Amino acid sequence: MMFLGLIILVGCTMPVQSGTINEEGEWEPDRSIEIIAPAAAGGGWDTTARMLARTIDEENLSTRGFGVVNKPGGGGAVGWAYIHKRNDPHNLFISSPPLHFVYLNGQSPYGYEDFTPIANLIADYGAFAVREDARWDTLDELFAEMRENPEDVTVVGVSSPGSMDHMQFIMFAEAAGVDITKIRYISDQDGGAMTAVLNGSVDVISTGVSDAAEQARAGKMKVLGITAPERLQGDEFLETLPTGKEQGIEAEFVVWRGIFGPPDMTEEQLAYYEQIFKATSDSEAFEKIRKMYGWDEQYMNSTDFKTFLDEQSNDLEVLLKELGFLRD
Questions:
Q1: Distance CA 28, CA 15 (A)
Q2: What angle do CA 113, 40, 170 make, to 5 degrees?
Q3: Where is the signal peptide (predicted)?
C-alpha cells in the first residue's frame, strides 16, 4: 500500500546554541524555552505540552519561562524537522508513538534516534470496543472468530493504516494468533469512526481508553479489552475494563508521551532538563493534572526512555514489515 503524506526533506542542522555554564559547572539556558507541540491546539501533544509548561512555571522549577508553540503538519514531521534543523537546546518537543510510525512508514526522515530522549512523563492506553449489542463480550471471543475468518470483521480507527490505532489492534491480534495480513482496517480521520461502530457500519473500534469509556459509560458500547498491562486504577468504571493480558493475550501497548531535545545536546544540557522534568513529574500539581486527564504516571529518565523506545521500535518494525508498511 502506498502512503500519501507530507515528506520533509533532510537538511543540514545549524550549530547548537550554547546557553551558559554557571559557577558549579552546570549548564543553564540563556533565554526562555520553547516546547514544540507538533500538532494543532487541542490534541494530546498540545495538552500535555501546555500542562508541563504551566506546572514548571507555576511551581518555579526553572529560572526561565517555558512556552508552547504549535507546529502542525505531516503527522508531526513538520515540528520534528524544525527541531532538527535548529539543533538548539532551547527548543524541545513533546511526542508519542507516532514518532515511530511516521518514520518507519517513510513519511518523515526523522525518528526517535535523530533526537535526544530527555524523559517520559505519562502513559495512556488504547481500547477495543464494539456496539453494546455486538455478539462478542470479550477479546477472546472476538479473536477466536477472527482466527477462523479474519476478513469477516471490520476494524476502524482515526489513524492511517500503519499508524497507532491500526497497529495497537494488530499487536493484540497477532499475539492472539490471527492472520494480521487479512485484517480489514478502515481509517476514518474525519471524526466518524465512533459513529460507524454505533450505526453498525463497522464492527470494532480501536481507540483511546477515554474515548471508548465515554461511550461505554453511556451504555452504547462494550469495551472488550484495553492495552494496559494491568487494570486502571482511580476510577470505579475504568477499573472494570479488562486487559488483554488477563484474557490470555500476551500483548500490551503504551501510548507514552515524553520530551525530546535536539540531536546534539551535551551531557550538561541533558542533566539540566532531566532534573526539571523529574521535579515536574513528582510535583503534587502535576499529579492533579494526571488525575484530571486520566493519565498514568510513567516517568523514565533519558537512559531508561531510550531503552524503552528501542524495544518498542523493534517490535513495531517487525509487524510493519509483515504488513508491507515498512519504509524501503
A1: 17
A2: 55
A3: none
Q: Identify the band that residue 8 occupies on the pLDDT scale cut at 50, 70 and 90.
A: very low
In Å, how far are 169, 209, 288, 290 from 293, measured between CA atoms? 23, 11, 9, 5
Residues 6+ apart with CB under 8 A from 5: 74, 75, 77, 102, 107, 160
pTM, rounded to two decimals:
0.87
* Selection from 133, 224, 213 nearest residue 176 by Cα: 224
d(CA 233, CA 256): 17
Query: Which architecture does CATH list for 32-123+256-323?
Result: 3-Layer(aba) Sandwich (3.40)
Q: Which cell goes with 173?
A: 491480534
pLDDT, tens digit, 9 for 90 and up, residues 199-246: 999 999 999 998 999 999 999 999 999 999 999 987 889 999 999 999
Fold of 124-247: D-Maltodextrin-Binding Protein; domain 2 (3.40.190)
The CA distance from 16 to 34, in Å, is 15
